[in-house]
Write a structure and sequence with these properties.
Shape of chain A: globular
Strand content of chain A: under 5%
Distance between the termini of chain A: 22 Å
Number of domains of chain A: 2
Number of helices of chain B: 10
Number of domains of chain B: 1
Strand order of the largest sheet of chain B: 1-7-6-2-5-3-4
Number of strands of chain B: 7
Largest interface: A-B, 21 and 15 residues
Oligomer: heterodimer
Shape of chain B: globular
Structural class of chain A: mainly alpha
Order of helices and strands of chain A: HHHHHHHHHHH
Number of helices of chain A: 11
Structural class of chain B: alpha/beta
Radius of gyration of chain A: 20 Å
Strand content of chain B: 5-15%
Chain lengths: ~325, ~240
């Protein structure tokens, strides 16, 4: 159980703090872009790009943070929608969407695993991962089309792992009454992680991290992000987990480093997929960002990693009612 | 087979939604397939119950896509009738070539044409060389079925006009069969000037044996030759 004071959505000071900080960053960055635009130094193309990105954030942030504030069901519903969008982009980019049976099974799997989260049925939630792997492995055999079997099955199992089982951990966290500060922290920390990597890389420069995978990332940016994100997550984590076994500097630092490393790993994972396919962006849904996956790639691995770290020390929703739908 | 290991992103990847609706490279996903399947079932039920729709010569349809269906054109019901005759993969992969200025005029109509009818836009009177090239490539590579009315427009009188050579460019020099079809009663059931179909008028479809044009050259003459043969075969079904 994550400690939580009684009261509504803003009962925990960390929740209020994160929301206010996000709004402040959005306002400040808007002013900064305005200043850049007014100064006339920036190229019109660059200005347009900055405004597009900023505008996308203005739409995206309420869609991300709003459901978390509204409650458990909203959070799980938002994660479900996110999962489906991510799968759609992945399937269209890899060509897996041409496999009707696999696509249908994956979509049903995504719905099922999020239903398990909504139902607060941990047994079914964890069982779905191996069961889905088995189902995906056998469901195209009746087509009697062995050519491409390994490829399509591997693509499908990776898809369910990342967008179904993986992301659903974020929604499952909402079964704990104290989920809000933690989920908000993860959502904002992975975004900060990206920004920190970009800024440190620009400021310090130096050797490239993995030039063939992602030509713009530097070692200094990556390490800088680890330092910045670890510090922030450890400090905020100390406020969230006060009085629990997790409130120990070693574990808090480990948690922060995990957010940063898993976030960057998710980013590089998507970069690898895009490089292999020879495409730049996964979609066009978010002007200035590309696709939904281009924005949320960092969350893919962070969600299950942090879930199981917290689960090990505290557990999620241990006093909350279980199997609320299936009884 | 190494070819099966090639990852092929969707042909319409990276297009904005409005562009995607009008793209000749549009490939439907689960949602599109679902909408199209529901539409096809509804149309089939409508044609059967309100027009007593009958199909003759179904055995002439090739067992597998790709193939091209051509027919006389007098009504909006024509494309619906041809696609209603198809089953299985051929039905799912059937794309009707529809006039862009009519069926893709605005986003709402374009969405209906793209998702429900599975139509691809043809722009009358515009340079179409690259478009035809795309269609030709997709027909073979993606194993599609094209529903095509080579007269180019709906006949107002009911008499069939001569076939345009564009059909020839799609199939000349390939093994892709062209299936001639004759639609009877569509003009009475939904004339070109009416806003809506008129129920309880009979509609029937006759499917002729497929034609192949592997020997026809990819030249103006070759295309003309294909168009003429297609026209003769289609006209002969009217008797």
């Amino acid at each position: 159980m994550i400690p939580h004071p009684p009261g509504g959505a803003f009962a925990h000071p960390v929740t209020t703090g994160i929301i206010l900080a996000t709004l402040a960053v959005l306002a400040l960055s808007g002013l900064a872009i305005l200043a850049i635009s007014k100064s006339g130094r920036a190229e019109p193309e660059f200005r347009k790009e900055l405004w597009l990105r900023w505008g996308s954030w203005c739409v995206l942030l309420p869609l991300m943070l709003g459901p978390v504030l509204l409650g458990r069901e909203w959070t799980i519903a938002a994660v479900t929608v996110l999962s489906l969008f991510c799968y759609r982009e992945y399937a269209r980019a890899t060509g897996l969407f041409r496999e009707r049976v696999l696509s249908l099974v994956i979509v049903l799997g995504i719905l099922a695993v999020n239903f398990a989260a909504l139902d607060h049925w941990y047994g079914f939630f964890t069982a779905l991962w191996p069961l889905m792997a088995c189902l995906l492995a056998v469901c195209t055999i009746p087509l009697d089309r062995p050519a491409g079997y390994i490829q399509r099955t591997a693509l499908a199992i990776l898809a369910f792992m990342l967008f179904g089982a993986g992301l659903a951990h974020l929604g499952y966290m909402a079964n704990d009454p104290g989920y809000r500060p933690l989920v908000l922290l993860l959502l904002t920390a992975v975004a900060l992680n990206d920004v920190a990597a970009f800024t440190c890389g620009k400021l310090i420069g130096g050797a490239k991290l993995l030039p063939a995978t992602s030509p713009n990332k530097t070692v200094s940016g990556s390490l800088g992000a680890v330092v910045v994100t670890t510090t922030l997550v450890a400090l905020v984590g100390a406020a969230i987990f006060r009085g629990t076994p997790l409130a120990n500097p070693v574990w808090l630092v480990a948690m922060g480093a995990l957010v940063s490393v898993a976030g960057q790993a998710g980013d590089l994972l998507l970069s690898s997929i895009k490089r292999d396919l020879g495409i730049k962006d996964m979609g066009t849904v978010l002007p200035g960002h590309g696709g939904v996956l281009d924005r949320f790639n960092s969350l893919l691995l962070v969600a299950p990693a942090i879930f199981h770290l917290v689960q090990y020390f505290l557990g999620f929703g241990l006093t909350a009612p279980t199997r609320v739908i299936t009884g | 087979m190494m070819e099966d290991w090639k990852l092929r992103p969707a042909r319409d990847l990276g297009l904005r939604p409005a562009e995607r609706l009008r793209s000749l490279g549009r490939e439907p996903g689960l949602f599109g397939l679902g909408v199209n399947a529901a539409w096809r079932r509804a149309v089939r039920a409508y044609l059967r119950s309100f027009h007593g729709f009958r199909v003759e010569g179904r055995e002439n349809l090739p067992a597998q896509p790709p193939f091209v269906m051509v027919a006389n054109h007098a009504s909006h019901l024509d494309a619906l009738a041809l696609s209603a005759a198809l089953r299985g993969p051929a039905a799912r992969r059937a794309h009707a070539m529809a006039a862009g200025d009519l069926f893709f005029a605005n986003h709402a109509v374009a969405a209906l044409s793209a998702y429900a009818i599975n139509a691809l836009p043809v722009w009358r009177g515009r340079s179409r060389r690259a478009d035809l090239e795309t269609m030709r490539t997709r027909l073979a590579e993606d194993g599609l079925v094209y529903i095509l009315f080579p007269e180019g427009t709906r006949s107002r009188s009911g008499a069939m006009a001569s076939f345009q050579p564009g059909l020839g460019m799609l199939v000349a020099g390939t093994e892709i069969p062209v299936v001639p079809c004759w639609i009877e009663g569509a003009r009475e059931a939904w004339p070109a000037h009416a806003r809506a179909p008129r129920p309880f008028r009979p509609l029937s479809l006759r499917i002729g044996p497929p034609l192949r044009f592997s020997d026809a050259p990819q030249t103006r003459e070759g295309w003309q030759q294909v168009a003429e043969s297609g026209e003769i075969a289609t006209r002969s079904l009217s008797l």
